[in-house]
Every structure is written in C-alpha cells, then in structure tokens.
Amino acid sequence: MHSIMLAVILSSLAAAQAEEPAGIPAVLDLATAQQIALRDNPSLQAAAERVAQARERIKQARSAYFPMVDATASASNTWLSDNSLDSARGEAFRGALQSGAATASLSPTGGAAELPLLTVFGNYAGAYADAMKAHAAVDNDYSSYNAAVTAQWLLFDGFERKFKYAAAKFNSQEFEAAYDESRRLLLSAVASSYYSAALARENITIAEADEAFNARQLKDANARRSVGSGSLSDVLNFEVQANAARASRISAENSYALSRLGLASLLGLPEGALPAETEIAPLPEECLEEMQEPQAEERISYALEHRPDLHQSAYAVERADATVKASRAPFYPTVSVSLSQAASTTERKPDMNDFATSVGLNVSYSLYAGGRNKALLMEAKSAKREAEFQWSDAQIGVVSDVRQQIENVLAAQKQLALQRANAVFVQKNRDLVEKEYNAGQTSLVRLNEAQRDLTSAQGQLAQARVALRQAWHDLRTAMGATLETCTEEN
Fold first, then answer.
1. H helix and E strand count, the chain
2. Cα dihedral 391→396→401→406 (10° resolution)
3. Mean pLDDT of all residues belonging to the chain
4. Which residues contact 337 (CB under 8 A, 6 or more apart)?
5. What is the pLDDT of residues 60-98, one digit of tens each?
6. Which of 50, 200, 260, 293 has the fewest CB atoms below 10 angstroms from its CB?
7. Strand (E) positions, 83-217?
C-alpha cells in the first residue's frame, strides 16, 4: 500500500515538473525575450523598488493628519558630591538643633516656664541627639522617577501638509512613470540586441552558402584537373574563395556569439549567457502591414498620450505646483492642541495618583524670518517654471522622435523593396554565369565577381529585412506602444 502511494506521489511530482515552463525556450523569439527581460532584469527590479519607496513616502506625508502620541519614562540615581553632602547634613543638623533648642525650655503645655536646670539640660541634650540623627539620616544619594504620556494634534498649518501629501503622490507617480520609461528603454535595448543576433544568424547562413558554393566549385575544379581539362589556377582560386567564405562565416559566428551574450545580460541571466541549445528564431516574412506607410499625425497623437517620459515630466510639473502651495504655509499661523499626563517622584516609583493632566492650545506665527520664507516661495515658483519648460521640451522631443522613426521606416521599406528585387536579379545572373563558366563560355574572374555580387546582395537583403523590423520597433518605442503590447502579452 505504501509503495503504491509513493509511486503516485512521485508520478504527480514528475507531471508537475513536466508542466512547468522552461526559463529559456529552445527557439527564442523577440516577444519571449522581452517578457523574460521585464521579469528578471536587475536594473528594472531596482527601478521597481524605487517606486515602492515613493509609495511609502506617501504614507509618511499622510501621517501628518493624525495625532502624534509619545510616551516617556526615566529613572535616575544621583550621588551627591562631598561638599553637597556636607552642606545638606549641616543644614539638617542645624535645623533639627534649632528646633530642639527652641522647645527645650518650654513647658509641656507649650508655654514659657521656669524649669529645673537638670530638665532644661536634658532637653538640650535630647535636641542635640535629634540633630545628630538628622545629620546621619541624610543619604549620599537619591533616586528620581519621571513618566509622561503626551498627545499632540496639528489642527492647521497653512495647508502645508495637504500640499506635501499631494507632492508625495505626484512624486510617486513620477517614479511609476520613470519605471515605465525604464521598461520602454529595456524593451528597445532587447530588440536591438535581438535583431543584431538575428542579422548575424542570417550572415552565417549566407557565408555557409558561399562556402558551400566555392567548395562545390573546388571539387569540380579538382575533377577537371585530374582528367587534364582544368588548371591549377582554378583550383587555387576556389581554395582562396572558400577560405574567404569560411573567414566571413567565422566573423558572423563571432558577431552572433557576442550578440547572444549581450542579449543574455539584458535578460538578467545569472550565467551571463544563453543556453547552448537556445537559438534565435528565424526572421519571418514581411507582412503587408509592415510595408504600408505609417500615418504621422495619428502616431504622434498616440505618443503624446502614452509616452512614459512625457508623463513623468507632467507629474513633475504637478509636484512643483504642490511644492509652491506648500511653500506658502509659513505665511499662515500654526495651530495645534496637546494633551499630556506626567508624574515626577523622588525615592519611589510613581503610581496613578501622581499623574497630573494638562491640556493646551498652541498658536504660533512667524513674524519675521529674515526673508527666508519669501525666498523659499520664489525658489519653488522658479522650480515650477523649470519643470514646465522641461515638459514642453519633452513634448517637442517626443514629436521629433516619432517623425524621425517614421522616416526610418519609410527608408527601410524602400531599401527592402530594392534589395529584394536586386537579390533576385543577382541570383539569376550568378546562375547564368555559373552555367557559362561550366560550359567554358566565360572566365573564372567573371564567376568570382558574380558570386561576390550574390553574397553582397544577400547580405544587404538580410540587413534590409532586419532594418525594417528594427525601424518598426523603434517607431513603436517612440510612440510608447511597446509597453502596451508587452502588457497585453503578459
């Protein structure tokens, strides 16, 4: 029975592990890479913590609306100095002696009367003995105890706490917008690194095809030479061309490896590298929408509404306005109420009967502060104007950014159409030259030129395909649309 239950548990665990999604898939596309970066990038996580700190500052500002209650308690023991102890004991002795001497000659009824000399002497002796006791009763230390509970509530402060609370909220919204801006820039960096890796992968494919072509020509050249119809120069030529293609492949592989390392860093992988089995997804074919002209006004309007850095500038203006209003608070009186219960005792701990209660109303007004309050207000107003200018500059920058990226998209579309047509022409030309060379109707130099033209055209086509996707992503980044896309995917 136990073995059956254990088998069931183990099978359940194995099934659960099989259902868990892998951290990095075997074929990595751009959307997945961006989602991983948003989840694991340490810099973005640090930005999220700054947002959390700003939210806590809102709570700190809100605390000014509530009473502040403090409890204090202290206990101390004081040892008298020798001079103080001698003075205290002397005063106690003299006081007791004077009191005893004053009553030594009085009758038991308290009136003045003539008493026997022996009785008077005895009374003075008793007074002296009492004075010595009083002298000895003075200790060289004493203890004191203090306890208090105080509550204070600010009723009015010239609306300072109101606008400080508003400033804290706008500051928190600034940090949230800054966090979104960090996400936007991270997505852009991931796309740039991803497309760099995709281009390197395409270049590897092109170099491998070039290497295979020259290897095939080298094999044919060796075969012709072995039967006496070919030359050594042809063999050496294709050896050189094959080595050149191999060098291009090694360079492309190096670029691919470096791009993978850069992408892994952006994804926040602790190993600093993508898994060896993970490959960059091949570039898909361009769709009709990607070849259409983007509408400038529509995309500019979207950007002005969605760009997080623009939101950050707008919140900075709101925060600066709240700071201006808070800076007017010193020109108003401050009113608060207080309630306290306090006790102070010596030589014993206080109990409830020792506590005294006091209630107070406190009003304060700054009559003159050397111009400091006015200067603070002027500084806040200047900071607000600065924030407004920065907001205007940010708007101009957003519009310019969108327009520049639209121009890049248009240029990339034209380049892709041109390079795609050119690649077809060059491919046909290379195939014709190859047939002519094999038939002995053209020179080896012409074949080399045709193959180099084909390799160059294929490389330019791959670059144009990547550039178009990069341009579209840059345009969506300029609009702030990449954040919305990733949010929907998540």
1. 12, 6
2. 140
3. 87
4. 152, 153, 155, 359, 360, 361, 362
5. 999 999 999 999 999 888 887 878 777 877 887 777 777
6. 293
7. 141-156
